[in-house]
Design a protein that fits this description.
Distance between the termini: 39 Å
Number of helices: 13
Order of helices and strands: HEHEHEHEHHHHHHHEHEHE
Number of domains: 2
Helix content: 40-55%
CATH superfamily of the largest domain: Vaccinia Virus protein VP39
């Protein structure tokens, strides 16, 4: 089950009130969205955006008989099209926008798309199955220098070079088509002492491939300026990130727009989960919440 991360803190800072409109740009399992709708009764609406058609389908089934169904608008699209989506839906007077940039539990545990290094699955890693780029294409067709670059830039993997080199050597013999093959290559590329650590040796490589396949960092940079076009004055943006690359983009955006007197930084430092939440939901341990307020 997808457990919404930092839900209490998100509600505290977005502060939804009756009849206000909000956007959840990453609907996932809908935990945050439903909590917001609960507080915006009787007429507040929520626009939920989700890139993965299957996630949208599942969430529609979940809410089809709920009291929220008439106040919830669901759109299967990339959030980089935020302005276009709000115009097409005639969705106005937006009081708050939420981004939960974490991967859903469904993607890891049930999608079968190779997001998890703990299962043997095809090397896909696409949120949107219409996307022509897969992890398998990167691993089998990109050059050693290109693979090394994404592992270093997107995964901050210190052993990017030997991993890339061994990928090239392995694929000369046969194609790398599943996660189990890739995990073995990664393990052989790392010194033995690094294989005994708490963090799985494949963690950073899988993160890097997922980011590259879905163009996650560029998408985030594209959408952030659009939030200021969509929000009403005084409206807030809440963004939960899960690794330093995302958090840096959000931090710099808020910082730059604060200098332009367009945004007030509500959180000078990111909000992180308490130990109690991490114990219940270990995947929340790296979450960071930043909140900004549009000034005018």
């Amino acid at each position: 089950m997808h457990i919404p991360v930092l839900q209490k803190e998100v509600l505290q800072h977005l502060d939804p009130k009756p009849n206000e409109n909000f956007i959840d740009c990453t609907i996932n399992g809908g935990g945050h969205a439903l909590a917001i709708l609960e507080r915006t009764e009787p007429e507040g609406k929520l626009l939920g955006i989700e890139w993965d058609e299957e996630i949208i389908r599942q969430f529609k089934l979940k809410v089809q008989s709920s009291k929220f169904k008439n106040r919830l608008i669901l759109v299967n699209n990339n959030f980089t099209n935020l302005v276009e989506i709000t115009k097409s839906q005639k969705f106005r007077a937006v009081k708050g926008i939420l981004f939960d940039l974490g991967m859903s539990s469904w993607h890891l545990e049930e999608s079968g798309r190779g997001f998890s290094f703990l299962k043997k699955e095809p090397l896909d890693m696409r949120y949107n199955p219409q996307n022509p780029l897969t992890a398998e294409k990167i691993i089998n067709y990109w050059s050693a220098s290109e693979i090394e670059k994404i592992l270093r830039d997107y995964g901050e993997e210190p052993f990017a070079r030997p991993i890339a080199k061994n990928i090239i050597e392995f694929r000369k013999i046969k194609p790398i088509i599943n996660t189990a093959q890739l995990v073995e290559i990664i393990k052989k590329s790392l010194p033995q002492r690094f294989q005994q650590r708490k963090i799985h040796p494949a963690t950073k490589t899988f993160q890097a491939l997922r980011i590259a396949v879905n163009d996650e960092l560029n998408n985030l940079e594209k959408v952030l300026p659009q939030t200021l076009e969509v929000l009403k004055p005084g409206g807030r943006i809440a963004i939960i990130s899960f690794h330093s690359l995302e958090d840096r983009i959000v931090k710099n955006f808020f910082k730059d727009k604060a200098k332009e007197n367009l945004i007030k930084q509500i959180t000078k430092k990111p909000i992180t989960p308490f130990r109690k939440e991490i114990k219940i939901n270990p995947r929340s341990r790296s979450a960071k919440l930043r909140v900004g307020q549009k000034l005018w």
